[in-house]
Design brief:
By secondary structure, the chain is of the alpha/beta class. It has helices at 2-19, 113-116, 126-131, 164-167, 172-185, 207-212, 214-220, 235-240, 267-282, 304-314, 341-354, and strands spanning 32-34, 38-44, 50-55, 62-66, 72-78, 86-91, 95-111, 138-142, 159-161, 189-195, 251-255, 288-291, 321-324, 367-374, 377-383, 389-390, 397-400, 407-408, 410-414, 417-421, 429-432, 442-443, 453-456.
């Protein structure tokens, strides 16, 4: 009889352990769910187990499903725009309650060290920013640094409420973005921070993309193995992005590219693939906003840094993307410029204008459109060119013929176009601010700098 009792107790314990309904850690107390959306809520339980979900903003509507044979379940939950804290109750053989939930705007912030850089690491105005980090409508979900050979299903993390203690260890750029967004829109903002200093773009791309594109794999051969970060294809995506999918997000903030100065010839394909593959994984053509890397002295015998900046300018051709100019915010001798607040606010201005239609000001620096040859003059046309002006007399424009031997030329401004005069008989190429470490001197009325570029003359 004693053995039978022990057996029954052990059986009940094992049944309870197997049967408990559970959710990935992205669903935790203090989280932010995307407002006014159809949200996928998913998790695990016993095969065949009935799952019920009740949202506090709609208590009379119970969502029900049954766990499949792989112990997986999911439900589609419609959110509203209530600004009060809400809760979710999930029932299976057990009961899980998620409390202090906010409905607002959710953004994913990712990339390498300049996105990771926190107030605790040292930024301009760090003490005051940390002290004032008291808006509880801002929430953080910081993904720990992990790698995996295959896509993972969960992350060891929880949502945190904004406070001086929590804010100082989170991405400073993402925090300043969230601070401005919540102030301007008067809605809660949740930021998922998934970043790792030093990482090249290739580690953030899903493995299936490498199977379809041999050029992607070829590019990784030029990435040296590092002591502090992974360089293997898909390793960061598998552990730090895949478990987040399909959690509903409003868009992505991205700051990365410095490490791809090792394989610049492959970066355009890699960065384009990254954006497209993430959208495919989420089945959502969400906004993808990225910071152009700041000027820095990588070694002037190689123009790898400015090549990355030019590639980032070219990637703007992808729909629903935007680029934050940082040419005026860098430190030529420090790859980690400390003035993070303007970068975060520029991200916010882009989102406020393009996503939320709440900002009418200029958000771009001048972007070159084309170069036309008229007699002995080269006429450069720019978008976002109202109030085009030079900050100083530095000669940053260069012209070359077929041999691509560039010569510095004089430049002037007329009717928001730039006019170049060159002695080269058959000019074919023009470039601007073509150095790794250079502060651009061409600005528009909004005091935003023009991007470095190299283009062919029409």
């Amino acid at each position: 009889m004693r053995n039978l009792s022990i057996y029954i107790i052990l059986f009940l314990i094992s049944i309870n352990a197997i049967a408990n309904v559970s959710l990935p850690s992205i669903f935790s107390d203090n989280m932010v769910l995307q407002r006014n959306s159809d949200i996928i809520i998913w998790g695990w339980a016993d095969p065949g187990e009935e799952i019920k979900l009740v949202a506090s903003w709609n208590p009379n509507d119970t969502l029900t499903t049954t766990t499949n044979r792989h112990a997986q379940w999911k439900l589609i939950l419609k959110t509203t725009d209530t600004k009060q804290p809400v809760s979710l109750d999930i029932f299976g053989y057990n009961h899980v309650q998620i409390k202090n939930v906010l409905l607002g705007e959710v953004w994913l912030a990712s990339g390498q060290s300049n996105m990771e850089w926190s107030a605790s690491a040292g930024i301009v105005g760090d003490s005051l920013a940390i002290k004032n980090a008291t808006n509880k409508n801002i929430r953080f979900f910081r993904v720990p640094k992990r790698t995996a050979e295959t896509a993972q299903i969960d992350i060891d993390a929880t949502w945190q409420v904004n406070s001086p203690e929590n804010m100082q260890y989170f991405s400073a750029i993402a925090y300043f973005f969230a601070e401005k967004l919540t102030n301007e829109l008067d809605v809660p903002v949740g930021i998922i921070g998934s970043y790792w200093g030093g990482t090249p773009a290739e580690v953030w791309i899903p493995s299936e993309a490498f199977k379809k594109d041999s050029t992607l794999a070829q590019g990784t051969k030029y990435l040296p193995q590092e002591k502090w970060w992974p360089t293997e294809p898909a390793y960061s995506f598998n552990a730090m992005i895949a478990p987040l999918i399909p959690f509903k997000i409003s868009g992505v903030l991205w700051y990365q590219g410095e490490s791809n100065t090792e394989n610049t010839g492959y970066y355009k394909n890699a960065f384009t693939t990254l954006i497209q593959s993430w959208r495919k994984q989420w089945n959502d053509n969400f906004p993808f906003y990225y910071a152009q890397i700041a000027p820095y002295n990588y070694g002037e015998d190689h123009d790898t840094g400015v090549q990355i900046r030019n590639i980032q300018r070219e990637v703007l051709k992808l729909a629903n993307t935007a680029m934050i100019p940082t040419g005026d915010l860098g430190n030529l001798e420090d790859i980690h410029p400390r003035d993070k607040k303007p970068v975060g606010e520029r991200f916010a201005n882009i989102a406020l204008q393009q996503k939320y239609h709440q900002f009418s000001g200029e958000v771009y620096g001048p972007l070159v459109e084309n170069a036309n040859l008229k007699k002995n003059k080269i006429i450069l046309n720019f978008s976002h060119s109202e109030g085009l002006n030079f900050k100083n007399s530095d000669r940053q424009f260069e012209v070359a013929g077929e041999n691509k031997e560039f010569e510095t030329v004089k430049a002037s401004i007329k009717n928001n176009t730039v006019i170049l005069r060159s002695s080269i008989k058959n000019p074919l190429y023009v470039r601007y601010a073509w150095k790794n470490a250079i502060v651009p001197n061409l600005y528009n009325k909004a005091n935003l700098p023009a991007s470095s570029f190299e283009i062919k003359i029409d």
